[in-house]
Structure formats: structure tokens, C-alpha cells
Amino acid sequence: MAAQPPTSPSSTSDKLAPADFQARWWTWASQPSGTNPVSDTSGRFCMRDQPVEVWLLAGTLGEEPVERQCRVPASKPLLAPVVNLASDVASCEKFMKSAQGEVLLDGSTQALTKVPATPFTYEARAGNPYGTSAGRINSVGCGLYAWISAPASGEHELVIRGSAPGGVEVDVRYKLIVGAD
Fold it and tell me: Are 134 and 124 in contact (CB under 8 A)?
């Protein structure tokens, strides 16, 4: 794993604070297992239920390396968690002590946002792969996230690699087709 690029403890999108973007990401990522974008190994579910402000991308649930293809509308910034957790303050503090990773867009290292333990609420769906019940979930989230300005139209390669305590290993390669609205 490459050395961790510089992170900013409080930088976020111009539109969303850490509690807001974690709520959107975890709501999106808490879809039923059969159509879940995190457990998806091809990218066929990446377009499901995307929020308005940002285009969300996913890591993995810990399986082997994954390659996905995803069509992304033009003019949308991207949000990709490298490693993240929804749990409690103590678990987040332990998780973040050795969380590391990198995001590369067309070979260029992207800055990571280090998000410490932050309370947020999200909507989980029945049958999600995290074992949470359906409905509103109050949680504490943390992680390393990459905010990426809207890429130019055309094809791009996005690589997400990360690791964290508990055997968390993420290795995802996206072929992004931008402007394929």
C-alpha cells in the first residue's frame, strides 16, 4: 500500500458536511443485498438511488479485488470512501488509528478527507448486507473519503485501495464513463 496522501480533517464538498455526506452514502449503501452497490462486482447497480448533489461510489464488503464499470452524469462531483465505518465513538477512534489508503483518478493521487467520529442518521433498507434493521438508524461514522471534482466527459479509471483494523481491505478499480447521462 502506498503511503497515505495528505488528508484534511475537516475539508468537505462545498455542499455537504461530514454528517450529511455520510448519511447519504450509508443510505445509498444500505440497499438490499441483491441490488447493493457495495456488494456489486460489476457496477450494474452503481446508478441506483444516487443523490442530487454528488455521485457516490463504493468500496467492497471485503471480498477479493473488484472491477466495476459505471456510467456517471457529466458535471457531478464524486464521493468515494476508501475505508469507512458506521458504529460508535470508541469503534471509530480505534478504526481511524490505522486506517489508510489511496484513490487514483487516471493515475493521479486524489486528496483524502479524514472524517473522525461524527454522529449522523441514515435510512437502512430491509435485507441490507450490514445486518442492520430497516428504518432510521442513528450512528457514528468515520473514515477516509475522496471528494473528486466532476471529471471531464469520457472514460476514466478510478482506483480505490484501503485498509483498516479488523481485516478491512478494499481494492476496487472503476471504469467510469462520464457524460453518459
Answer: yes
Q: Is residue 1, in this structure, part of any structural domain at all? A: no
Cell digits of residue 136: 432510521
pLDDT exceeds 80 at position 163: yes
**CB hemisphere CA count around 72 (13 angstroms):** 30
Plot region of 157 (φ>0 → left; ψ -120 to 50 → alpha; else → beta):
beta
- Of residues 156 and 167, more confidence is placed in 156
pLDDT at 9: 38
The residue range of the domain holding 22 is 7-178
- DSSP string covering 86-137, please? EE-HHHHHHHHHH-EEEEEETTEEPPEEEEEEEEEEEEEPTT-TT-PPSEEE
Q: In whole numbers, what is the pLDDT of the chain averaged over residues? A: 90
Contact 126, 111 (CB under 8 A): no
What's the structural domain count of the chain?
Answer: 1
E strand or H helix at 169, and its extent?
strand 168-178
pTM, rounded to two decimals:
0.89
